[in-house]
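User: Earlier you gave me the apo prediction for this protein. Now I'd like the version with S-adenosylmethionine bound, so I can compare the two side by side. Same sequence as before, with the ligand SMILES added.
Assistant: Got it. Here's the input I'm using:
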Amino acid sequence: MSEASTSSATGASDPERPASDPELVEGSPTPTPRRRLRLVGIGCGDPDQLTLEAVRALQDASFALVTVKREHDPLADVRRAIIERHAPGLRVVEVVDPERDRSASATATIAGYENVVDDWHEARAEAWEQALLGTPGGGAGPWAAGGAGGGAGPWAADGAGGGAGPWAADGAGGGAGPWAADEHSDGALLVWGDPAFYDSTIRVVERVVARGAIDLEWDVLPGISALQLLAARHRVVLHEVGQPVLVTTARRLREAVDAGADNLVVMLGAGLDLTGLEDWTIWWGANLGARSEALVHGRVADALPVIETARAEAKATAGWVMDVYLLRR
Ligand SMILES: C[S@@+](CC[C@H](N)C(=O)[O-])C[C@H]1O[C@@H](n2cnc3c(N)ncnc32)[C@H](O)[C@@H]1O
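And here is the structure of the complex with S-adenosylmethionine:
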């Protein structure tokens, strides 16, 4: 790392300080309104898992940006339920998530997978930019920003009309986006778990800022990650005394084991291939925090059939399944 930098928070943690409020000097021009996007970690599905800081961020926001998949998206439903619980009436701006190339040919190699993800991040950045600018047809979906008219849905704005977007109120049209007319306006982006683990939100927001079309501040509020929930539910420490834990993906599990890792947390798996690890111990959890939560612990060979059944049941109950596990030699 050749570069060092210092940065100050954008005011997320100090309620006493009106973050980045421009100093008002008599006779100086009116300060540019601050538009801040807050990346709010929401935990893994249980509305009780939001921190007080996260709840306050939702309550203070002018709108929430929620990504939805083209087909029915149960995780978007969870986000809406969280908003309804903690910030009822908060306007929801939906952004339809661009499709990612999941073909085996494109993702067979690590390099191919990284290319696909890179393209996907850029497409997401473009879609979010459009939604934040309030561009008509900018992918905001049925709850689209101003001008969406009758399709605005239950969390819709107040009939802002005019194409100004979800935050707009000043009639600025092009460029005002969903921001409120007030001098300062926050948007909240609800991030599953904690934004620091296997989540592209930070990278996509960096791209939105780099594209330069929106003058945007942003900050990150941590959430409870699936990692923490797994440990809590199993009442286990993720590593042995003074030892490391490697957090990786199912895709890279083999590589990690071959390199000698013997205590790993594995995320982003579509199924479990643990051939050769039959004598290891597993602490597995699916849909943690949801009503369909399932836990299995034991020797891998014994646990695997139980896990397969529990995984299928969780999917059938909730309509979605995500799992994470700790593996130890
Ligand atoms: C895209 S990553 C997001 C991780 C998230 N940022 C976090 O901090 O937990 C999705 C992966 O996280 C894990 N995960 C997320 N939510 C989960 C849950 N409720 N139960 C079990 N695993 C979960 C799974 O490994 C899933 O494949």
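For your comparison, keep in mind: The two ends are 34 Å apart (CA to CA).
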